[in-house]
Design goal:
Largest interface: A-B, 29 and 33 residues
Order of helices and strands of chain A: HEEEEEEEEEEEEEEEEEEEEEE
Radius of gyration of chain B: 17 Å
Distance between the termini of chain B: 37 Å
Strand content of chain A: over 45%
Number of strands of chain A: 22
Order of helices and strands of chain B: HHEEEEHHEHHH
Distance between the termini of chain A: 44 Å
Shape of chain A: globular
Number of helices of chain B: 7
Shape of chain B: globular
Radius of gyration of chain A: 19 Å
Strand content of chain B: 15-25%
Oligomer: heterodimer
Structural class of chain A: mainly beta
Number of strands of chain B: 5
Largest sheet of chain B: 5 strands, mixed
Helix content of chain B: 40-55%
Number of helices of chain A: 1
Largest sheet of chain A: 12 strands, antiparallel
Chain lengths: 351, 153
Protein backbone atom coordinates (compact mmCIF):
# COMPACT_ATOMS: atom_id res chain seq x y z
CA UNK A 1 0.00 0.00 0.00
CA UNK A 2 1.50 3.34 -1.03
CA UNK A 3 1.64 6.18 1.49
CA UNK A 4 -0.96 8.91 1.66
CA UNK A 5 0.56 12.36 1.42
CA UNK A 6 -0.78 15.84 1.90
CA UNK A 7 0.42 17.67 -1.24
CA UNK A 8 0.47 20.97 0.58
CA UNK A 9 2.33 19.60 3.58
CA UNK A 10 5.47 21.19 4.95
CA UNK A 11 7.72 18.54 3.37
CA UNK A 12 6.22 18.96 -0.08
CA UNK A 13 6.25 22.76 0.11
CA UNK A 14 9.91 22.80 1.11
CA UNK A 15 10.80 20.57 -1.83
CA UNK A 16 8.77 22.63 -4.29
CA UNK A 17 10.54 25.78 -3.12
CA UNK A 18 14.08 24.40 -2.93
CA UNK A 19 14.71 21.51 -5.32
CA UNK A 20 14.42 23.26 -8.67
CA UNK A 21 17.03 23.12 -11.43
CA UNK A 22 19.51 26.00 -11.17
CA UNK A 23 21.56 25.59 -14.37
CA UNK A 24 22.47 29.25 -14.87
CA UNK A 25 22.26 30.54 -18.44
CA UNK A 26 25.37 32.63 -17.83
CA UNK A 27 28.28 31.67 -15.68
CA UNK A 28 29.31 33.63 -12.62
CA UNK A 29 32.01 36.00 -13.90
CA UNK A 30 32.51 33.57 -16.80
CA UNK A 31 33.75 31.00 -14.29
CA UNK A 32 33.89 27.52 -15.80
CA UNK A 33 33.18 24.19 -14.18
CA UNK A 34 29.49 24.45 -13.26
CA UNK A 35 28.09 21.11 -12.23
CA UNK A 36 24.60 20.08 -11.16
CA UNK A 37 23.12 16.68 -10.42
CA UNK A 38 20.01 14.95 -9.08
CA UNK A 39 20.93 11.80 -7.17
CA UNK A 40 18.61 9.03 -5.96
CA UNK A 41 19.47 5.96 -3.88
CA UNK A 42 17.42 3.04 -2.67
CA UNK A 43 19.01 0.40 -0.44
CA UNK A 44 17.83 -2.80 1.20
CA UNK A 45 19.58 -6.02 2.08
CA UNK A 46 18.36 -7.49 -1.23
CA UNK A 47 19.05 -4.58 -3.57
CA UNK A 48 20.75 -1.25 -4.18
CA UNK A 49 19.66 1.25 -6.81
CA UNK A 50 21.58 4.41 -7.74
CA UNK A 51 20.35 6.84 -10.38
CA UNK A 52 22.15 10.12 -11.08
CA UNK A 53 21.23 12.76 -13.66
CA UNK A 54 24.09 15.23 -14.13
CA UNK A 55 24.81 18.35 -16.15
CA UNK A 56 28.41 19.56 -16.27
CA UNK A 57 30.36 22.19 -18.15
CA UNK A 58 32.61 20.48 -20.68
CA UNK A 59 36.05 21.46 -19.44
CA UNK A 60 37.71 20.01 -22.56
CA UNK A 61 35.68 22.04 -25.07
CA UNK A 62 38.06 23.79 -27.44
CA UNK A 63 35.86 25.82 -29.72
CA UNK A 64 35.29 28.60 -27.21
CA UNK A 65 31.57 27.98 -27.00
CA UNK A 66 30.26 26.96 -23.62
CA UNK A 67 29.16 23.34 -23.92
CA UNK A 68 27.45 21.29 -21.29
CA UNK A 69 27.48 17.51 -20.98
CA UNK A 70 24.47 15.50 -19.82
CA UNK A 71 25.04 12.06 -18.30
CA UNK A 72 22.77 9.47 -16.73
CA UNK A 73 24.50 7.06 -14.36
CA UNK A 74 22.59 4.03 -13.16
CA UNK A 75 23.81 1.10 -11.07
CA UNK A 76 21.62 -1.70 -9.74
CA UNK A 77 22.49 -4.57 -7.40
CA UNK A 78 20.10 -7.50 -7.25
CA UNK A 79 21.86 -10.81 -7.92
CA UNK A 80 25.02 -8.85 -8.66
CA UNK A 81 25.87 -5.40 -9.92
CA UNK A 82 24.97 -4.03 -13.34
CA UNK A 83 25.02 -0.47 -14.59
CA UNK A 84 26.24 2.01 -17.12
CA UNK A 85 26.77 5.70 -17.92
CA UNK A 86 24.83 7.13 -20.88
CA UNK A 87 25.71 10.44 -22.53
CA UNK A 88 23.16 12.65 -24.31
CA UNK A 89 23.24 15.15 -27.14
CA UNK A 90 21.90 18.65 -26.40
CA UNK A 91 18.71 18.07 -28.39
CA UNK A 92 17.90 15.07 -26.19
CA UNK A 93 17.98 17.09 -22.97
CA UNK A 94 15.24 19.16 -21.35
CA UNK A 95 16.20 20.73 -18.02
CA UNK A 96 14.50 24.09 -17.59
CA UNK A 97 15.88 26.28 -14.83
CA UNK A 98 13.42 27.03 -12.07
CA UNK A 99 11.50 23.77 -12.33
CA UNK A 100 11.87 20.35 -10.71
CA UNK A 101 12.28 18.11 -13.69
CA UNK A 102 14.81 16.75 -16.15
CA UNK A 103 14.51 14.69 -19.28
CA UNK A 104 17.48 12.91 -20.82
CA UNK A 105 16.27 10.95 -23.81
CA UNK A 106 13.71 8.43 -22.52
CA UNK A 107 14.84 8.92 -18.91
CA UNK A 108 13.47 11.55 -16.61
CA UNK A 109 12.90 12.97 -13.16
CA UNK A 110 9.57 14.66 -12.35
CA UNK A 111 8.06 16.05 -9.17
CA UNK A 112 4.27 15.76 -9.24
CA UNK A 113 1.64 15.72 -6.50
CA UNK A 114 4.29 15.71 -3.82
CA UNK A 115 6.24 12.71 -5.15
CA UNK A 116 9.29 12.16 -7.32
CA UNK A 117 8.93 10.00 -10.43
CA UNK A 118 12.28 8.61 -11.57
CA UNK A 119 12.55 6.75 -14.87
CA UNK A 120 15.84 5.40 -16.20
CA UNK A 121 16.05 3.59 -19.54
CA UNK A 122 19.66 2.66 -20.11
CA UNK A 123 20.72 2.49 -23.73
CA UNK A 124 23.53 -0.06 -23.84
CA UNK A 125 22.60 -2.20 -20.86
CA UNK A 126 19.19 -3.86 -20.42
CA UNK A 127 18.35 -1.87 -17.29
CA UNK A 128 15.08 -0.07 -16.62
CA UNK A 129 14.18 1.69 -13.39
CA UNK A 130 10.68 3.04 -12.69
CA UNK A 131 10.20 4.45 -9.21
CA UNK A 132 7.81 6.69 -7.36
CA UNK A 133 9.47 8.12 -4.26
CA UNK A 134 7.42 9.58 -1.40
CA UNK A 135 9.39 12.07 0.73
CA UNK A 136 9.01 11.79 4.51
CA UNK A 137 11.45 14.31 5.95
CA UNK A 138 11.77 18.04 5.77
CA UNK A 139 14.70 18.66 3.43
CA UNK A 140 17.88 20.38 4.47
CA UNK A 141 20.13 22.64 2.46
CA UNK A 142 23.85 23.19 3.08
CA UNK A 143 25.22 26.28 1.35
CA UNK A 144 28.67 27.63 0.61
CA UNK A 145 30.61 24.37 0.52
CA UNK A 146 34.01 25.51 -0.66
CA UNK A 147 35.89 22.90 -2.70
CA UNK A 148 38.61 25.14 -4.07
CA UNK A 149 39.36 28.74 -4.80
CA UNK A 150 36.22 29.33 -6.82
CA UNK A 151 32.53 29.77 -6.10
CA UNK A 152 30.94 27.25 -3.72
CA UNK A 153 28.78 24.16 -4.01
CA UNK A 154 25.27 23.83 -2.59
CA UNK A 155 23.71 20.60 -1.25
CA UNK A 156 19.93 20.09 -0.99
CA UNK A 157 18.97 16.79 0.57
CA UNK A 158 15.81 14.82 1.24
CA UNK A 159 17.27 12.03 3.37
CA UNK A 160 14.25 9.79 3.67
CA UNK A 161 11.80 8.65 1.05
CA UNK A 162 9.83 5.47 0.44
CA UNK A 163 10.30 3.98 -3.02
CA UNK A 164 7.69 2.02 -4.96
CA UNK A 165 7.94 0.63 -8.44
CA UNK A 166 10.13 -1.85 -10.24
CA UNK A 167 13.59 -2.50 -11.58
CA UNK A 168 14.34 -4.64 -14.63
CA UNK A 169 17.78 -6.02 -15.34
CA UNK A 170 17.66 -8.20 -18.45
CA UNK A 171 14.89 -10.73 -17.93
CA UNK A 172 14.79 -10.22 -14.17
CA UNK A 173 12.09 -8.00 -12.74
CA UNK A 174 12.25 -6.89 -9.12
CA UNK A 175 9.38 -5.15 -7.37
CA UNK A 176 10.23 -2.25 -5.09
CA UNK A 177 7.65 -1.92 -2.33
CA UNK A 178 8.33 0.74 0.26
CA UNK A 179 12.13 0.43 0.19
CA UNK A 180 13.91 3.27 2.02
CA UNK A 181 15.46 5.85 -0.26
CA UNK A 182 17.41 9.08 -0.35
CA UNK A 183 17.63 12.03 -2.72
CA UNK A 184 19.98 14.95 -3.01
CA UNK A 185 20.62 17.72 -5.47
CA UNK A 186 23.96 19.51 -5.76
CA UNK A 187 24.88 22.52 -7.84
CA UNK A 188 27.85 24.84 -8.04
CA UNK A 189 31.38 25.15 -9.29
CA UNK A 190 34.30 22.82 -8.83
CA UNK A 191 36.75 20.77 -10.88
CA UNK A 192 37.38 17.08 -10.41
CA UNK A 193 41.01 16.67 -9.41
CA UNK A 194 41.18 19.73 -7.18
CA UNK A 195 42.55 19.45 -3.67
CA UNK A 196 39.45 18.09 -1.90
CA UNK A 197 37.81 14.83 -0.93
CA UNK A 198 34.57 14.06 0.82
CA UNK A 199 32.69 11.39 2.66
CA UNK A 200 28.96 11.74 2.90
CA UNK A 201 26.25 9.31 3.82
CA UNK A 202 22.74 8.74 5.03
CA UNK A 203 21.00 6.09 7.08
CA UNK A 204 17.60 5.14 8.39
CA UNK A 205 15.67 2.30 9.91
CA UNK A 206 14.70 -0.73 7.90
CA UNK A 207 10.98 0.09 8.04
CA UNK A 208 8.93 3.25 7.63
CA UNK A 209 7.90 2.93 11.27
CA UNK A 210 11.41 3.73 12.51
CA UNK A 211 11.57 7.46 13.31
CA UNK A 212 15.30 8.13 12.96
CA UNK A 213 17.23 9.37 9.92
CA UNK A 214 20.80 10.63 9.76
CA UNK A 215 22.89 12.45 7.17
CA UNK A 216 26.64 12.82 7.54
CA UNK A 217 29.34 14.75 5.73
CA UNK A 218 33.07 15.21 6.07
CA UNK A 219 35.03 17.47 3.73
CA UNK A 220 38.83 17.16 3.67
CA UNK A 221 41.86 17.86 1.53
CA UNK A 222 42.54 15.33 -1.24
CA UNK A 223 44.89 13.31 0.96
CA UNK A 224 42.13 13.11 3.63
CA UNK A 225 44.59 14.31 6.23
CA UNK A 226 43.01 17.67 7.09
CA UNK A 227 39.33 18.17 7.86
CA UNK A 228 37.66 21.26 6.47
CA UNK A 229 34.14 20.52 7.67
CA UNK A 230 32.22 17.76 9.50
CA UNK A 231 28.53 17.41 10.25
CA UNK A 232 25.96 14.91 11.47
CA UNK A 233 22.27 15.77 11.18
CA UNK A 234 19.52 13.75 12.88
CA UNK A 235 15.84 13.77 11.92
CA UNK A 236 13.04 12.45 14.09
CA UNK A 237 10.06 11.66 11.94
CA UNK A 238 9.80 14.42 9.37
CA UNK A 239 11.57 17.09 11.42
CA UNK A 240 15.22 18.01 11.86
CA UNK A 241 16.02 17.10 15.45
CA UNK A 242 19.71 17.72 16.20
CA UNK A 243 22.83 18.95 14.37
CA UNK A 244 26.40 18.23 15.45
CA UNK A 245 29.27 20.02 13.75
CA UNK A 246 33.02 20.38 13.82
CA UNK A 247 34.73 19.33 17.02
CA UNK A 248 31.51 17.87 18.41
CA UNK A 249 31.98 15.00 15.96
CA UNK A 250 34.77 12.43 15.80
CA UNK A 251 35.01 9.90 12.98
CA UNK A 252 37.26 6.92 12.33
CA UNK A 253 37.61 4.34 9.58
CA UNK A 254 38.66 0.76 10.11
CA UNK A 255 39.80 -2.05 7.85
CA UNK A 256 39.13 -2.43 4.14
CA UNK A 257 36.07 -3.77 2.38
CA UNK A 258 36.78 -7.19 0.88
CA UNK A 259 34.45 -7.35 -2.11
CA UNK A 260 34.50 -9.71 -5.08
CA UNK A 261 31.63 -8.10 -6.95
CA UNK A 262 32.58 -4.43 -7.14
CA UNK A 263 31.33 -2.65 -10.28
CA UNK A 264 33.42 0.12 -11.82
CA UNK A 265 31.98 2.53 -14.38
CA UNK A 266 32.66 3.44 -17.09
CA UNK A 267 33.63 -0.17 -17.72
CA UNK A 268 36.43 0.73 -20.12
CA UNK A 269 38.32 2.35 -17.23
CA UNK A 270 38.70 -1.08 -15.65
CA UNK A 271 41.32 -1.82 -18.34
CA UNK A 272 43.69 0.70 -16.82
CA UNK A 273 42.26 1.04 -13.30
CA UNK A 274 40.85 -2.34 -12.30
CA UNK A 275 38.18 -2.18 -9.62
CA UNK A 276 39.88 -2.15 -6.26
CA UNK A 277 38.42 -1.53 -2.87
CA UNK A 278 41.57 -0.77 -0.94
CA UNK A 279 40.45 2.83 -0.51
CA UNK A 280 37.14 2.09 1.15
CA UNK A 281 36.79 1.04 4.77
CA UNK A 282 35.11 -2.02 6.21
CA UNK A 283 33.57 0.16 8.93
CA UNK A 284 33.03 3.86 9.54
CA UNK A 285 32.42 4.90 13.11
CA UNK A 286 31.22 8.27 14.40
CA UNK A 287 30.58 9.76 17.82
CA UNK A 288 28.98 13.14 18.35
CA UNK A 289 28.71 14.89 21.73
CA UNK A 290 27.52 18.26 22.82
CA UNK A 291 25.29 19.98 25.38
CA UNK A 292 24.56 16.68 27.12
CA UNK A 293 23.57 14.89 23.93
CA UNK A 294 25.40 11.87 22.50
CA UNK A 295 24.91 10.12 19.18
CA UNK A 296 26.98 7.25 17.84
CA UNK A 297 26.81 5.42 14.55
CA UNK A 298 28.58 2.38 13.15
CA UNK A 299 28.39 1.73 9.42
CA UNK A 300 29.48 -1.72 8.22
CA UNK A 301 29.98 -1.75 4.47
CA UNK A 302 28.73 -4.73 2.47
CA UNK A 303 28.62 -3.76 -1.23
CA UNK A 304 30.40 -1.22 -3.42
CA UNK A 305 30.21 0.23 -6.87
CA UNK A 306 32.64 2.81 -8.16
CA UNK A 307 32.42 5.63 -10.68
CA UNK A 308 35.58 7.05 -12.23
CA UNK A 309 35.27 10.76 -12.96
CA UNK A 310 37.85 12.19 -15.37
CA UNK A 311 39.68 15.13 -13.83
CA UNK A 312 38.86 18.46 -15.39
CA UNK A 313 42.36 19.86 -15.63
CA UNK A 314 44.56 16.83 -16.24
CA UNK A 315 44.39 13.23 -17.47
CA UNK A 316 44.00 11.77 -14.01
CA UNK A 317 40.76 10.64 -12.47
CA UNK A 318 38.80 10.65 -9.24
CA UNK A 319 37.18 7.48 -7.96
CA UNK A 320 33.77 7.83 -6.33
CA UNK A 321 32.95 4.76 -4.24
CA UNK A 322 29.31 4.17 -3.28
CA UNK A 323 29.00 1.78 -0.36
CA UNK A 324 25.85 0.20 1.01
CA UNK A 325 25.64 -1.66 4.26
CA UNK A 326 24.28 -1.93 7.76
CA UNK A 327 23.92 0.89 10.23
CA UNK A 328 23.68 0.83 14.00
CA UNK A 329 22.63 4.08 15.68
CA UNK A 330 22.57 4.72 19.41
CA UNK A 331 22.65 7.59 21.85
CA UNK A 332 20.57 10.02 23.87
CA UNK A 333 19.18 13.32 22.64
CA UNK A 334 17.45 15.66 25.12
CA UNK A 335 17.07 12.71 27.48
CA UNK A 336 15.43 10.44 24.89
CA UNK A 337 17.29 7.17 24.23
CA UNK A 338 17.99 6.17 20.63
CA UNK A 339 18.63 2.65 19.46
CA UNK A 340 18.23 1.63 15.84
CA UNK A 341 19.48 -0.91 13.31
CA UNK A 342 19.01 -0.03 9.68
CA UNK A 343 20.54 0.53 6.25
CA UNK A 344 22.92 3.19 5.06
CA UNK A 345 24.86 4.31 2.03
CA UNK A 346 28.11 6.25 2.15
CA UNK A 347 30.14 7.84 -0.63
CA UNK A 348 33.93 8.17 -0.56
CA UNK A 349 36.15 10.12 -2.94
CA UNK A 350 39.73 9.09 -3.68
CA UNK A 351 42.37 10.07 -6.21
CA UNK B 1 29.56 7.16 -40.73
CA UNK B 2 30.85 4.91 -37.97
CA UNK B 3 32.46 1.64 -39.01
CA UNK B 4 32.69 -1.91 -37.80
CA UNK B 5 36.34 -2.14 -39.03
CA UNK B 6 38.88 -1.87 -36.22
CA UNK B 7 41.44 0.20 -38.08
CA UNK B 8 38.81 2.62 -39.28
CA UNK B 9 37.75 3.01 -35.65
CA UNK B 10 41.37 3.47 -34.55
CA UNK B 11 42.14 6.06 -37.21
CA UNK B 12 38.97 8.06 -36.57
CA UNK B 13 39.46 7.67 -32.85
CA UNK B 14 42.92 9.19 -33.02
CA UNK B 15 41.52 11.99 -35.19
CA UNK B 16 38.90 12.68 -32.50
CA UNK B 17 41.51 12.55 -29.76
CA UNK B 18 43.69 15.06 -31.55
CA UNK B 19 40.79 17.41 -32.11
CA UNK B 20 39.05 17.16 -28.73
CA UNK B 21 41.73 16.19 -26.18
CA UNK B 22 45.04 17.36 -27.67
CA UNK B 23 46.78 16.92 -24.33
CA UNK B 24 46.08 13.18 -24.52
CA UNK B 25 47.10 12.96 -28.18
CA UNK B 26 50.39 14.70 -27.47
CA UNK B 27 51.13 12.51 -24.46
CA UNK B 28 50.25 9.36 -26.39
CA UNK B 29 52.67 10.37 -29.11
CA UNK B 30 55.36 11.09 -26.54
CA UNK B 31 54.80 7.75 -24.81
CA UNK B 32 55.21 5.83 -28.06
CA UNK B 33 58.38 7.81 -28.72
CA UNK B 34 58.43 7.13 -32.45
CA UNK B 35 57.92 3.37 -32.04
CA UNK B 36 55.99 1.37 -34.60
CA UNK B 37 53.18 -0.77 -33.21
CA UNK B 38 52.22 -3.74 -35.40
CA UNK B 39 48.58 -4.51 -34.67
CA UNK B 40 46.64 -7.54 -35.89
CA UNK B 41 42.90 -7.79 -35.25
CA UNK B 42 40.87 -10.66 -36.71
CA UNK B 43 43.77 -11.45 -39.05
CA UNK B 44 44.01 -7.93 -40.48
CA UNK B 45 47.38 -6.19 -39.83
CA UNK B 46 48.44 -2.55 -39.82
CA UNK B 47 51.47 -0.71 -38.46
CA UNK B 48 50.63 2.32 -36.34
CA UNK B 49 52.97 5.27 -36.07
CA UNK B 50 52.18 8.41 -34.08
CA UNK B 51 54.75 11.12 -34.48
CA UNK B 52 55.00 14.86 -34.95
CA UNK B 53 51.32 15.47 -34.39
CA UNK B 54 50.24 12.93 -37.02
CA UNK B 55 49.39 9.26 -37.14
CA UNK B 56 49.40 6.64 -39.87
CA UNK B 57 48.25 3.07 -40.28
CA UNK B 58 50.36 1.36 -42.93
CA UNK B 59 49.78 -2.05 -44.44
CA UNK B 60 53.44 -2.99 -44.31
CA UNK B 61 56.20 -2.66 -41.79
CA UNK B 62 58.09 -4.18 -38.95
CA UNK B 63 56.88 -3.36 -35.46
CA UNK B 64 58.96 -2.43 -32.45
CA UNK B 65 56.14 -4.06 -30.51
CA UNK B 66 53.40 -6.38 -31.73
CA UNK B 67 49.83 -6.86 -30.57
CA UNK B 68 47.46 -9.56 -31.82
CA UNK B 69 43.83 -10.05 -30.78
CA UNK B 70 40.25 -10.27 -32.07
CA UNK B 71 36.95 -8.40 -31.77
CA UNK B 72 35.63 -10.81 -29.14
CA UNK B 73 38.56 -10.17 -26.83
CA UNK B 74 38.26 -6.42 -27.33
CA UNK B 75 34.56 -6.53 -26.45
CA UNK B 76 35.41 -8.50 -23.29
CA UNK B 77 38.06 -6.01 -22.27
CA UNK B 78 35.99 -2.89 -22.92
CA UNK B 79 33.01 -4.36 -21.06
CA UNK B 80 35.31 -5.35 -18.18
CA UNK B 81 34.33 -9.03 -18.45
CA UNK B 82 38.01 -9.82 -18.25
CA UNK B 83 41.16 -7.94 -17.35
CA UNK B 84 44.16 -7.15 -19.53
CA UNK B 85 46.22 -9.58 -17.49
CA UNK B 86 43.76 -12.45 -17.89
CA UNK B 87 43.45 -11.77 -21.64
CA UNK B 88 47.24 -11.95 -21.96
CA UNK B 89 47.55 -15.06 -19.81
CA UNK B 90 44.91 -16.89 -21.88
CA UNK B 91 46.39 -15.77 -25.21
CA UNK B 92 43.30 -13.79 -26.17
CA UNK B 93 45.65 -10.82 -26.35
CA UNK B 94 49.18 -11.57 -27.52
CA UNK B 95 52.02 -9.11 -27.03
CA UNK B 96 55.58 -9.28 -28.21
CA UNK B 97 58.39 -6.82 -27.65
CA UNK B 98 61.19 -5.67 -25.41
CA UNK B 99 60.11 -4.73 -21.87
CA UNK B 100 60.60 -0.99 -22.42
CA UNK B 101 58.58 -1.12 -25.63
CA UNK B 102 55.73 -3.02 -23.95
CA UNK B 103 55.67 -0.47 -21.14
CA UNK B 104 55.53 2.32 -23.71
CA UNK B 105 52.60 0.61 -25.41
CA UNK B 106 50.74 0.20 -22.11
CA UNK B 107 51.34 3.86 -21.24
CA UNK B 108 50.00 4.87 -24.66
CA UNK B 109 46.92 2.68 -24.18
CA UNK B 110 46.32 4.27 -20.78
CA UNK B 111 46.45 7.75 -22.25
CA UNK B 112 44.20 6.76 -25.16
CA UNK B 113 41.52 5.56 -22.74
CA UNK B 114 41.91 8.61 -20.50
CA UNK B 115 41.41 10.77 -23.56
CA UNK B 116 38.53 8.67 -24.86
CA UNK B 117 36.43 9.21 -21.74
CA UNK B 118 36.84 12.96 -22.22
CA UNK B 119 35.89 12.88 -25.91
CA UNK B 120 32.35 13.33 -27.18
CA UNK B 121 33.02 11.48 -30.45
CA UNK B 122 35.05 8.48 -29.33
CA UNK B 123 32.36 6.64 -27.35
CA UNK B 124 30.08 6.53 -30.38
CA UNK B 125 32.93 5.35 -32.63
CA UNK B 126 33.81 2.61 -30.16
CA UNK B 127 30.19 1.63 -29.73
CA UNK B 128 29.73 1.27 -33.47
CA UNK B 129 32.86 -0.85 -33.84
CA UNK B 130 32.09 -3.17 -30.91
CA UNK B 131 28.49 -3.74 -31.97
CA UNK B 132 29.00 -4.10 -35.67
CA UNK B 133 26.90 -2.30 -38.23
CA UNK B 134 23.80 -1.99 -36.06
CA UNK B 135 24.02 0.76 -33.48
CA UNK B 136 23.78 -0.35 -29.87
CA UNK B 137 20.87 1.93 -29.27
CA UNK B 138 18.76 0.51 -32.05
CA UNK B 139 19.46 -3.05 -30.98
CA UNK B 140 18.78 -2.29 -27.33
CA UNK B 141 15.48 -0.64 -28.20
CA UNK B 142 14.50 -3.56 -30.39
CA UNK B 143 15.32 -6.08 -27.65
CA UNK B 144 13.28 -4.28 -25.02
CA UNK B 145 10.29 -3.77 -27.33
CA UNK B 146 10.37 -7.46 -28.13
CA UNK B 147 10.49 -8.33 -24.44
CA UNK B 148 7.61 -6.04 -23.52
CA UNK B 149 5.52 -7.21 -26.49
CA UNK B 150 5.92 -10.83 -25.44
CA UNK B 151 4.96 -9.95 -21.84
CA UNK B 152 1.90 -7.98 -22.91
CA UNK B 153 0.83 -10.71 -25.34
Amino acid sequence: MTPTLTPGGVVQRAIARGDYVRRPATRLADYAGHKEWFHFCVSTVEMDILVNFSLSDDSWSRDGARTEGARLTCAVRTDGWDGDIDCFEPDEVTAPSGRIGLRFGESSVRYENGTYRVTARMRRRPIDVDLTLYPFTVPSQVNNILLGDGPPLQWFLVPRLAAFGEVRVGDQRTEVAGAPGYHDHNWGYFRWGQDFAWVWGYGHGRTLGSPWTIAFDRLTDRGRGTDVERGLLLWKGKNRHRLFRGTELRVSEHGFLRSNDALRLPRVMAMIRPAATVDVPATLQGRAEGRGDVLEFLFSSRHVCQFVAPNDGDLGSTVISELSGDLHLSGRIRGEPIEMDGRAMFEFLSG
Amino acid sequence: MASADFFTFLSRGLDALGAEVPLAYSLLSRNLGGRTVRITVDGDTRCLRVHGGRHSLDADGIGDVELRTDRGALVSLVEARESLLSAIMTDRLMLRGAPNDLVALYDALTVFIQGAVRSSALPALLDAYLNGTQSAQRRRTAEMRSLRTSEEG
